[in-house]
Write a structure and sequence with these properties.
The protein has about 350 residues and is α/β, with parallel strands linked by helices. The protein is built from eleven helices and 19 strands. Strands 3, 6, 7, 10, 11, 18 and 19 form a seven-stranded mixed β-sheet that branches. Bound molecules: nicotinamide-adenine-dinucleotide (NAD) and threonine.
């Protein structure tokens, strides 16, 4: 099977690898769509993300969906021909976190495209059947692949307890921020303010329904939020830019008693933060890491037409064009590229 392998930064090789055999509890999936995530681009450019270093050739891609072509002998839940979205993190199922229900915090998780685990820029992936979620008619495999970043948005909104009538500020209009916006609307938020520092991203957010889109670099964000909320501040901020300065700004624009959810991986591990602000205003400042139990929700929201994910896809390429696709995805103005396969 054709497989795009990152052999060193900025260099993919298309290899012919043996097709995997599904284990008894797995399904073999012919991959149809794989999103290019910011983390894939980061590995492509730098060969590492923090402590995760690409020491051996790695297959990138963790936002994937496809069609079941074979089922393991113990699998009773899937049939050949089912279209499925693959949740890319499979936990150990035995540790305290898994037993506690926080399987996304499992330290033994096998997460696609995170060294040393291969991802989905390949023709076939064999994956545990219970992490392969059937897509109903009407939900495309492109949408199935985008259940992954949508899951990040759903989990962040759950962490922030976003609810009916809330005003939510989403910092960063990349794919994650835009899908946080979708998830926040689905959770009942009536007002969504989006910030970014790139005009094209702000325009894109406006076209996708942001009630207010503000340039965070222009220096008047707090005033703009004050004006919009009559001085109250927003109920929930979801920080999805990863910009260090945006962490304090998030604390500045949330209302007293409100919640700040940190999703963006701040480029600097330590960021200045006015702790008295947090105490005096009794803020909840929470981390949000990946997701748990979000795929069924994401698929339901897509099937009901409550969220739009395909609208963030700006280009599609084939596996043979993976190098070009990654070069294109490095453009800061581009929101999302997809690799499509037709094996
Ligand atoms: N916590 C998690 O589980 C999780 C999962 C996926 C991604 N992430 C992180 O979330 C962040 C967003 O991911 P993405 O793929 O959308 O990234 P992205 O780089 O495509 O988008 C980030 C956006 O933030 C904008 N930005 C930069 N500085 C800003 C500022 N000061 N204020 C507002 N916006 C600003 C950028 O212009 C860009 O549009 C990244 O840091 C990523 O690593 C976290
Ligand atoms: C959650 C996922 O989208 C992220 N890129 C990660 O590897 O953690």
């Amino acid at each position: 099977m054709r497989t795009a392998v990152l052999v060193e930064p900025h260099q993919f090789e298309l290899e012919d690898r043996p097709r995997p055999m599904p284990a008894p509890d797995e399904v073999l999936v012919a991959v149809r769509d794989v999103g290019i995530c910011g983390s894939d681009v980061h590995y492509y450019e730098h060969g590492r993300i923090g402590d995760y270093v690409v020491e051996n050739p790695l297959v990138l891609g963790h936002e994937s969906a496809g069609e079941v072509v074979e089922v393991g002998e113990d699998v009773t839940t899937h049939e050949v021909g089912d279209r499925v979205a693959l949740e890319p993190g499979v936990p150990c199922r035995r540790c305290a976190h898994c037993k506690h229900g926080d399987y996304h915090l499992c330290e033994e998780v096998r997460f696609m495209a995170t060294p040393p685990h291969d991802g989905a820029f390949t023709e076939y992936v064999s994956w545990p059947a219970d992490y392969a979620y059937e897509l109903p008619d009407g939900v495309s495999t492109t949408e199935g692949a985008l259940c992954e970043p949508l899951s990040v948005g759903i989990h962040a909104c759950r962490r922030g307890d976003v609810g009916t009538g809330d005003t939510v500020l989403v910092a960063g209009a990349g794919p994650i921020g835009l899908l946080v916006m979708e998830a926040a609307r689905a959770a009942g938020a009536t007002d969504v303010i989006v910030t970014d520092v790139v005009d094209e991203k702000l325009d894109f957010a406006r076209k996708r329904g942001a009630d207010l889109a503000v340039d965070a670099a222009a220096g008047d964000l707090e005033a703009a939020v004050d004006e919009y909320t009559d001085g109250a501040g927003v109920d929930v901020v979801v920080e999805a830019s990863g910009a260090a300065s945006s962490v304090q700004t998030s604390v500045d624009v949330v209302r007293r008693g409100g919640t700040v959810v940190l999703v963006g991986l701040a480029s600097e591990a330590t960021v200045p933060l006015d702790v008295l602000d947090i105490i005096d205003n009794e803020l909840d400042v929470l981390g949000s890491f990946r997701y748990k139990n979000t795929y069924p929700t994401a698929i339901d929201l897509l099937a009901e037409g409550v969220v739009d994910v395909e609208g963030i896809v700006e280009f599609e390429s084939t596996l043979d064009e993976v190098d070009d696709a990654f070069r294109r995805a490095m453009d800061p103005d581009v929101i999302k590229g997809m690799i499509t396969l037709d094996s």
